[in-house]
Every structure is written in C-alpha cells, then in structure tokens.
Design a protein that fits this description.
alpha+beta; about 20% strand; Beta-Lactamase; 6-stranded antiparallel sheet; 3-stranded antiparallel sheet; Arc Repressor Mutant, subunit A
Amino acid sequence: MIDKTLSKGLKLLEALADSDTPRGVTNIASELELSKSNAHRLLQTLAALGYVDSVEGKYFATPKIWSLGEKIVGRLAVRAVALPEMESLALETQETVHLSILDKTEVIYLEKIDSPQPIRAYTEVGGRAPASAVATGKAMLAYQDDDIIAAAAARLAPHTRLSLPDGDALRKELAGVLKLGYAINRGEWRERIGGLAAPVFNRYGKAIAAIGISGPTDRLTPKRMRDHAQRVCEAARRVSEKLGSSA
C-alpha cells in the first residue's frame, strides 16, 4: 500500500527538480492538485530535511538530490569495476573475497565471492560489521576525517578477546594502515576469523571502498597474510585506477 503523504512529497520534489526556475506554492499546488496548505507543509518538511530551499517565497530543489544519486551510481560503478578483480583474487588466494563500503562507523558488504574451501568466513551481501573490527573497515577508516575516526573509537566493543580495547589502540592501528597500505583483522570481530584488506580510491582520492580476503586464522596465518598482502593491494590499486584514481 502506497503512503500518500510520502508519494505527494516525492512528486513535489520531482516537480521542483524538473523546473528550471523556482516555483511558488500556489503554482506547484495547482500542478499537483494539492491544497495550498498541504503543498506548503510538504515544502517546509523537505526544506527542513535539506532537499528544498527558497528565495523570495519561491522554492527549488537543492543539490542534496544529486549527492544521493551520485552515491548510488558510485556504488554501482565500483561493484562493476571490482568484480573481475575480486574473481581473480579469489582464484589466487582460495579465500572469501569482500568488497565493502563505509557507512559512518560500519561497513556494508557490497559484494562477495565465497571461498571454495569447506571452512570459510560466512557473511552476507548487504550485511554490516563494525568498521573498527574488520579489515575492510580499517582500510577505509584510516583515510577518513578525525570526526569519523572518533565516532568509531567511541563505539568500540569487546566482540572477541582480540578486539581493540580503546581509541588509542585504534588510532595506532590506523597509523599502521597508512604506513603499510593495507589493514589486518586478527580475529577482532569473530573468533578465529581473520582478514586482510586494502582501500579503493575514487578520482578525487577518497577511499570509497575496500577489497579484502577473509578466512579462518589457522589458515590465514601471519605468514600467509604477508604473502597475500601484495595481491590484495594490487587488486585494490587496479580498481582504483579504473575509477580514475591516481592515488
């Protein structure tokens, strides 16, 4: 069942986006067959949310709509570009390969290729994990602004006995990521499940995603992590280059 208020608000937003000039309340109410009071109330709500602004009593859509669209297109683009590299990495390492993006202090798994081995890391596309506790998350966090890192530090929790204990430990870990170019999870989110990941940059030099491998720590030993580090970094670098990055 369609929510009528939401439907009216979206139609109003579409009408403003299609208009070359700001629109008055009476004008847009007439076009959408709304009462003037209803149109005004919807416009005020959209303005409060940052989707609409006004000048001299006339309303226009803000770039916030464009920024939302850019995020969606960016996610689709990085997935399409990354998938061939993920397939190659999965073949080379025989481990589960993830493509993640950052949503505030959490990662979202955008794509994955399961390991062919019977004992492997289990995750779901669309699933989430704390960025501070997984390799793909730390690979992206290291390149974020201080306020995002502080927010991640404030949400640290003892998921396992190896979870990072405090903000100082997290910042030290992220400094290591900047130095090495990749991040490691030693079993900080799930017991005995480790990982290794490297950031993916867009054409503006922003870390918008990360590619990583994960598996049981008795197989992904420190030595195997080091052996796979170059492969993971190269996969992330090639995806970044295809997205226009020079980082």
